[in-house]
């Protein structure tokens, strides 16, 4: 730990440096200056952990120095070493966070070892307590964010929306692997997915994300025999994709996947997070965007192919989805 001595009495500074075996306590005196103003100049260019300072000094006293350092150098701790024995000074110093208040008059070199051990112990305890507080705050922050992400992941919307999947993947990648694994397992259990007992142990975050993408791809390729709600809704989305240029109705999709029409609409919204109607529009606008990128058809042709004979209405839906008109896109 680096130590700075601040005292307007040069002999007092040099005497304090000489009388203490600083190295024995893990300390190193990196400088000594004559007042608070000079101390601030020193601190601008030198890292200091502990300042031993007098109170009564010209230009800037020790208490003023402590107040400024509390704002500008909060990691720097103080020990007051002064001739003042007035309790009010000691109280002010301790309120400002001083580790100790030592009277020059009563200071006995023979008691130096006990004094220094007490100061170092207080310094270490203060640092330990701060580290524990920071860790608790970090854990609280992480815990809250993990819980929020877990709830989002449990919604299952990422299964049906590529943008949602991309967002979730990005958020997961920012977490420690153990948290991401916990969210994945919790999500699969909550959604009662058949593979919940087959989630492997992951070595890296990319491995986990690749597994999610592979699992999702497999769901869309091999779900024809599954009858759980997630699989049935995936088949309904596939139905939309296959009939995107048609007037797709919820009744037809329900019949195609073998669900009752009333149950289908409720369950589709519950599982995917959006109504069937909005899902149809999203896929139609996605198809429109793909056709616009190709540049092979006019905007009117694209709108008509997707079932929109009113171009203004088509343009309005496209703007809502992409934030711009088809022409701007």
From TrEMBL:
GO terms for biological process: phosphorelay signal transduction system. Residues 2-119 form the Response regulatory domain. Keywords: DNA-binding, Phosphoprotein, Transcription, Transcription regulation. GO terms for molecular function: DNA-binding transcription factor activity; sequence-specific DNA binding. Residues 234-329 form the HTH araC/xylS-type domain. The modification 4-aspartylphosphate is found at residue 54. Signal peptide: none annotated. This is Stage 0 sporulation protein A homolog. It comes from Gallintestinimicrobium propionicum.
């Amino acid at each position: 730990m680096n130590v700075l001595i601040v005292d307007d009495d040069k002999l007092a500074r040099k005497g304090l440096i000489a009388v203490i075996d600083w190295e024995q306590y893990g300390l190193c005196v990196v400088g000594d200056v004559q007042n608070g103003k000079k101390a601030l100049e020193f601190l601008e260019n030198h890292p200091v952990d502990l300042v031993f300072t007098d109170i009564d000094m010209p230009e800037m006293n020790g208490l003023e120095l402590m107040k400024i350092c509390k704002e500008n150098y909060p990691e720097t701790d103080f020990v007051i070493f002064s001739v003042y024995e007035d309790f009010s000074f000691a109280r002010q110093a301790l309120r400002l966070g001083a580790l100790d208040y030592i009277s020059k008059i009563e200071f006995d070199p023979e008691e130096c070892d006990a004094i220094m051990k007490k100061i170092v112990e207080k310094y270490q305890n203060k640092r330990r307590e701060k580290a524990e507080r920071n860790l608790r705050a970090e854990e609280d922050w992480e815990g809250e964010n993990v819980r929020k992400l877990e709830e989002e992941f449990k919604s299952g919307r990422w299964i049906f929306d590529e943008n949602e999947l991309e967002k979730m993947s990005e958020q997961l990648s920012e977490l420690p692997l153990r948290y991401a694994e916990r969210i994945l397992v919790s999500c699969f259990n909550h959604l009662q997915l058949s593979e919940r007992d087959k989630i492997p142990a992951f070595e890296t975050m990319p491995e986990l994300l690749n597994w999610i993408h592979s699992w999702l791809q497999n769901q869309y390729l091999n779900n024809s025999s599954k009858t759980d709600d997630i699989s049935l809704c995936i088949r309904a989305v596939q139905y939309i994709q296959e009939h995107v240029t048609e007037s797709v109705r919820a009744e037809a999709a329900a019949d195609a996947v073998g669900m009752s029409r009333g149950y289908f609409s409720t369950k589709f919204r519950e599982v995917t997070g959006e109504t069937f109607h909005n899902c149809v529009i999203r896929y139609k606008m996605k198809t429109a965007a793909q056709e616009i990128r190709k540049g092979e058809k006019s905007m009117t042709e694209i709108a008509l192919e997707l079932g929109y004979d009113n171009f203004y209405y088509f343009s309005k839906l496209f703007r809502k989805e992409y934030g711009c008109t088809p022409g701007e896109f």
